[in-house]
Amino acid sequence: MNKKLNIKFVELTIEKWNALGICETFWIIKSKTGCKTGYFPTFDDLCDKDADHFLKYKNCYYLKGEPCYNEGCDCMLEEETKDCVIDSISIYNNIKNIIYLRKDLIKEISILKLENEFFRSINSGKYF
Ligand SMILES: [Zn+2]
User: Fold this and answer.
1) Ligand 1 centroid to 25 CA: how many Å?
2) Cβ(17)–Cβ(67) below 8 Å
3) CA 73–ligand 1 middle distance (angstroms)
4) 18 and 70 fall within a common domain
5) Residues 100-123: tens digit of each pLDDT
6) Are residues 73 and 35 in the same domain?
C-alpha cells in the first residue's frame, strides 16, 4: 500500500508561531502572488524515513492532503512553475533574526491600519 501521512498545514505568522513555541520547523509557501506561512504540526516528530517521504511529496500534501504518486502531477508542476514553492527554516537564530527584521515593519503596518480606519470613518461621513 502507498504511504500516506496525516499531516496538514496550519497557517500562522512567524511571530505567533514563535510565541507558541510549538515546534522547530517554520514553513513558507511561496507563490507568484504572495506567500503564506505556518507549520506542519507533526513534521518535527517524523522519523527520517517519513520526513524524506514528506519532503518528496510536500507539494502534494500541501495542495491535496496526500501524495499523488504519479510523476509530474499538478502539485509538482506548480513547484516547477514557481506557483507553489514550499520552503522551511529551522535554525533558531535565523528565525529570531527574521522576527527582529519584521518588528519595524509590523509597527508600520499597524499604524497604517489605524490611519486607514480614521480616513474611512471620515469618508463615511461620521464627522460631517
Ligand atoms: Zn501531487
Assistant:
1) 22
2) no
3) 5
4) yes
5) 889 988 899 999 999 998 888 888
6) yes
Span from the CA of 103 to the centroid of ligand 1 (angstroms): 36
Q: Ligand 1 mean position to 55 CA, how many Å?
A: 12
Indicate whether 64 and 101 sit together in one domain: no
Write the DSSP assignment of 44-104 as a string of letters.
Answer: GG--HHHHHHHHHTHHHHHHHSS---STT-HHHHHHHTTSSEEEEE--HHHHHHHHHHHHH
Same structural domain for residues 54 and 13?
yes
Please tell me the distance between residue 17's alpha carbon and the centre of ligand 1 in angstroms. 27
Task: Provide the whole-model pTM.
Answer: 0.76
Give 63 Cα–ligand 1 centroid separation in angstroms.
7
Domain boundaries, position 127: 92-128
Q: Are residues 11 and 72 in the same domain?
A: yes
pLDDT in tens, 4-62: 999 999 999 999 988 888 778 999 999 988 999 999 999 999 999 999 999 999 999 99
* Same-domain check for residues 14 and 72: yes
